[in-house]
């Protein structure tokens, strides 16, 4: 089984290979995405480390001069040019001129990916690799703190759901509902606006409607994007009067872990990180406590505008395991949530939203389905906290899920059925990684 699955995953990555980077899925996701490419490099390193390096280097094509790494670098092709036109990154003086990108970022998985790729290089190559990649990583993390945490609280604020990578997960939809959604959006169907949205949307053309966001949600996200565009994607201007802004739990946990990776990379090359950055990094670890809610025994996202926790449970609550900075007691508590049959212990774990959430829907994108990248991150977190058996069980179940149902974007956590895009990049790559580890 393992060998056949390995070949199947490699074939998906070869199919999605565009030379120097890999698209998440042919027609549905035809561009280069930030965290997708990081996960893809983590898989590729197991059998073609040079190509894994190229994948990550390609991401740097899109780095803005202020340090931001955009979530998308657009593929130049007339079939997909609408995305480039809609975002129009050239409005910002910081955007690169050679490639068109989006104007927002995505979870900072780069330091982890660079580290993992480095593990598969020999000593001399690793030194060169780390020395090459450290400066852009530092620049990116500095941008995150300076532009998205300028009150120096230690938590980075996201200004669009797409930045979280978990687009329609419950905390974001709850935040959306708390905002004043323009009437023409809310009653879009009456005005026929949803027909126009569906023309712009690529996802509903390639996957089943019931598995994706509603037209109102998609339209609201589009409106949120237009507001950012009007401010030329200037975070400070946007955060003065934000529309959708969250201190996102998954993102901040990934950042905390990425900070440790960045420190390790710096140490390996005998370099010091800038002092200001080091103190910002320390603050993040303490600030994670602000996202803990003792009453419910969960971690939550925090609403930037409402100044309160968004108490909608989601898979994010488990992510501090991956961050690695919480106490052993807290970690034990999270492992118990993972084992709870009313919450995360489904037949095919881990559901992106727990079973007892009012949002839970086994087919709907980030509101229930199992995603392989989330499993990979949590397996890593379990290992770090010494839960070897639990990590191994989850690893085996994850591999079995893909092996029995194909290389899909996400899976029904109750039946295991593959959903979303077929031949999905990070599912293939991380399955390779789980098979090799
Ligand atoms: C979807 C996912 C996002 C991913 C992108 C490309 O938008 O929610 O996390 O990066 O697809 O695969």
Report on the structure:
It is a single chain. 52% of the residues lie in helices and 6% in strands. The chain is built from 21 helices and nine strands. It has helices at residues 2-16, 34-44, 49-60, 81-87, 110-119, 123-148, 161-164, 170-178, 183-186, 188-191, 193-200, 203-206, 215-230, 235-240, 249-268, 275-287, 320-323, 328-339, 372-384, 388-405, 425-436, and strands at residues 32-33, 72-73, 246-247, 292-293, 298-299, 301-303, 308-310, 408-411, 418-422. It has a three-stranded antiparallel beta sheet. Strands 1-2 form a two-stranded antiparallel sheet. A two-stranded antiparallel ribbon has the order 4-5. Strand 4 and strand 5 form a beta hairpin. Helix 5 packs antiparallel against helix 6 (123-148). It starts with a helix and ends with a helix. Bound molecules: alpha-D-glucopyranose. Alpha-D-glucopyranose (GLC) is lined by residues 24, 29, 33, 35-36, 165, 167.
Could you give a short description of this structure?
The chain has 437 residues and is mainly α.
Give a topology summary.
Blueprint: H1 2-16, E1 32-33, H2 34-44, H3 49-60, E2 72-73, H4 81-87, H5 110-119, H6 123-148, H7 161-164, H8 170-178, H9 183-186, H10 188-191, H11 193-200, H12 203-206, H13 215-230, H14 235-240, E3 246-247, H15 249-268, H16 275-287, E4 292-293, E5 298-299, E6 301-303, E7 308-310, H17 320-323, H18 328-339, H19 372-384, H20 388-405, E8 408-411, E9 418-422, H21 425-436
Antiparallel strand pairs: 1-2, 3-6, 4-5, 6-7, 8-9
This protein binds alpha-D-glucopyranose.
Short descriptors:
437 residues; mainly alpha; three-stranded antiparallel β-sheet; two-stranded antiparallel ribbon; 21 helices; binds alpha-D-glucopyranose
């Amino acid at each position: 089984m393992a060998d056949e699955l390995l070949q199947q995953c490699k074939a998906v990555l070869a199919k999605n290979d565009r030379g120097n980077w890999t698209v998440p899925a042919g027609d549905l996701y035809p561009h280069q995405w930030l965290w997708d490419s990081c996960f893809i490099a983590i898989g590729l390193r197991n059998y073609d480390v040079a190509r894994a390096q190229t994948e990550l280097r390609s991401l740097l094509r899109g780095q803005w001069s202020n340090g931001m790494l955009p979530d998308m670098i657009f593929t130049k092709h007339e079939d997909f040019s609408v995305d480039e036109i809609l975002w129009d990154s050239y409005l910002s003086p910081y955007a690169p001129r050679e490639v068109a990108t989006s104007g927002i970022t995505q979870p900072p998985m780069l330091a982890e990916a660079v580290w993992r790729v480095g593990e598969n290089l020999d000593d001399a190559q690793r030194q060169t690799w780390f020395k090459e990649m450290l400066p852009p990583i530092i620049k990116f993390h500095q941008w995150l703190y300076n532009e998205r945490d300028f009150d120096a609280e230690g938590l980075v604020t996201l200004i669009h759901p797409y930045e979280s990578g978990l687009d329609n997960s419950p905390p974001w939809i709850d935040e959306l509902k708390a905002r004043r959604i323009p009437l023409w959006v809310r009653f879009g169907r009456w005005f026929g606006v949803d027909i126009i949205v569906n023309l712009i949307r690529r996802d509903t053309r390639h996957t089943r409607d019931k598995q994706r966001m509603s037209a109102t949600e998609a339209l609201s996200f589009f409106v949120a994007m237009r507001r950012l565009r009007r401010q030329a994607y200037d975070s400070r201007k946007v955060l003065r009067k934000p529309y959708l802004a969250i201190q996102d739990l998954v993102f901040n946990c990934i950042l905390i872990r990425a900070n440790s990776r960045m420190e390790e990379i710096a140490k390996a090359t005998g370099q010091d990180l800038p002092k200001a950055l080091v103190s910002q990094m320390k603050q993040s670890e303490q600030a994670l406590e602000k996202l803990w809610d003792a009453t419910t025994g969960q971690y939550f996202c925090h609403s930037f505008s409402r100044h309160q926790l968004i108490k909608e449970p989601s898979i994010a609550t488990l992510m501090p395991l991956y961050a690695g900075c919480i106490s052993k007691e807290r970690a034990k508590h999270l492992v118990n949530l993972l084992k709870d049959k009313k919450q995360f212990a489904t037949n095919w774990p881990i559901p992106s939203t727990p079973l007892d959430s009012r949002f839970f829907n086994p087919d709907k994108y980030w509101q229930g389905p199992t995603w392989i990248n989330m499993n990979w991150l949590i397996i890593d977190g379990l290992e770090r906290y010494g839960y070897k058996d639990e990590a191994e069980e989850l690893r085996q179940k994850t591999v079995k899920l893909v092996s029995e149902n194909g290389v899909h974007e996400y899976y029904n956590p109750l039946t295991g059925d593959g959903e979303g895009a077929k031949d999905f990049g990070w599912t293939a790559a991380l399955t390779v990684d789980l098979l090799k580890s």
